[in-house]
Amino acid sequence: MHNPSQTGADPAVPLLFTPLNMRSVRLKNRIVVAPMCQYRSIDGGPTDWHLVHLGKFAVGGAGVVFTEETAIEERGRKTHACAGLYNDEHVTAYRRITDFIKAQGAVPAIQLGHAGRQASCHGAELGWKPLTEEDAKAGLPPWQGVAPSPIAWSSDAAVPHELSRAEIGEMLATWKQATLRAVDSGFDICEIHGGHGYLLHQFLSPLANKRTDAYGGDRAGRMRFVLEVAEAVRSVWPADKPLFFRMSVVDGRGGQWFIEDSIALAAALRDLGVDLIDCSSGGMNGDGPFPPVPRVPEFQVAYAKTLREQAGMPTLAVGLITSPQRAEVILQAGEADLIAIARGAIWDPNWPAHAAAELGKHDPYAVLPGDMAFRLRDRDRHRDSYPSGSKVDIPLAPDRSVPYSWSERGEYWPAARE
Ligand SMILES: Cc1cc2nc3c(=O)[nH]c(=O)nc-3n(C[C@H](O)[C@H](O)[C@H](O)COP(=O)(O)O)c2cc1C
Q1: Domain extents in the chain
Q2: Which amino acid residue places its CA nearest to atom 12 of ligand 1?
Q3: Residues 6+ apart with CB under 8 A from 9
Q4: How many whole angstroms separate alpha carbon 265 and alpha carbon 205?
Q5: 111 Cβ closer than 6 Å to some ligand 1 atom
Q6: DSSP-assigned letter for residue 293
Q7: What is the CATH code of the structural domain delimited by 4-364?
Q8: Given the residues 198, 215, 303, 365, the one annotated as active site
Q9: Per-residue pLDDT reduced to its tens digit, 171-208
Q10: Cα separation of the two ends of the chain
Q11: The whole model's pTM is what?
């Protein structure tokens, strides 16, 4: 396996901060801000919110900044406020954001997806409650989702439309069109969202896919549509740019898609030119005996490690990785090639700079934009000259009895008292 984690690594620099080349795209470090739905798009398009939300992670020093799941077509959104990339206005709006992210030295990445049967609902705060005719009166009309089989995803959700063979073919063309728009939007990494219970995951898991044609049945049949999507996307996504695939390595509670299925899928995706598996889990529940994946720290790292080893595929580890030291250990152990953070980035958009400081990286401020780094170094210089607790009289009015000195930068500072 090509092992990007270890290539040219300088042992003096933490692996987390060692650049990584993927195809012709250079990641300045291994920190990825994971996709995070914002429920703040207007008619599918990003707004100033997205510029600020994504921009602050680029300013904070992340190597890769992901957009939220972005629907390839209007009916593939979860909510009326979800992101999409299905018209040319969206392209223009995303251009502004990718330009800004690139100007900070980060790589803009898009996660393309389709909600399938999980369309037509409210957002996360309302537990993805399906839209009703009541909501229509408030300007949020429900619509019918699509799926491999006409099975609702929850007891209160509507039954989705079962995609015909012809519609599956049309859907592949839609994936291609959205990918071309992602190219025009200036993204340098594209990720196909194949997990969390959304359309591609619905095809993969026997819980949602009861088809009897070539797109259902055994594992090869259930994987068919997903592989066709990967092939379609790869055919138009530039050959010099990396393609990622996010999968739920296992279903959720009572699931029927297991790790051996994901290993087989990852190997098949690798052969189609997918460069990395982003290892997530869950989003699809059933009545079987499979236990829910416990949400403990680093709960998905074992999936990244297993797929990396057994599918011969670079992986991304995500899920409650909060400490830079642990992120470094995961990379050093060869369990994953990239580390993603989501909630950690919300809490601390400058997580990369703080991680650099904690890992003892030389000049951690260099992770931030140059002029900001300059100001922080300057702050330290003053702090170090006057350690906390040193008694310095702050002049309220000129007091010629206090000895003052000019700093080399021309600031007039009182000398610390003995
Ligand atoms: C606000 C929020 C929105 C999310 N939206 C998406 C999404 O659009 N696509 C996706 O694949 N995962 C999404 N996730 C999952 C994250 O990408 C990530 O896998 C998960 O939060 C675990 O990482 P963490 O423990 O660092 O937060 C979202 C998570 C959060 C917190």
Answers
A1: 4-364
A2: 35
A3: 15, 18
A4: 12
A5: yes
A6: P
A7: 3.20.20.70
A8: 198
A9: 999 999 999 999 999 999 999 999 999 999 999 999 99
A10: 63
A11: 0.93
